[in-house]
Amino acid sequence: MSAEQRFLTLADVAEVLNVTVRQVYALVRSGDLRGIQIGGRGQWRVEHDQLEDYIQRQYAKAEQTLAEDDGGQDTDDSHDVEESGSTTDDDVNV
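User: That's the sequence. What structure does it adopt?
Assistant: Structure tokens below.
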């Protein structure tokens, strides 16, 4: 992916977000991630800026969720993270 590339394919977006192309397509179709259809076959493209906006919205949403769940108190959420430090598939909400 070039630094100057304005539009990304759904496969490019999937690679950035580390999800499947099908999940990206669902995000676009739902309106959560803005995209456009181009060409005679209606191929989807997502503008780089739109992807960055989506990522920032997801960070804000995660922070709000954590703040609501935490209630301002420290809790032990270690059960949500595997020993490797990565989250489990159950933690992903796409």
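The chain has one domain: 1-68.
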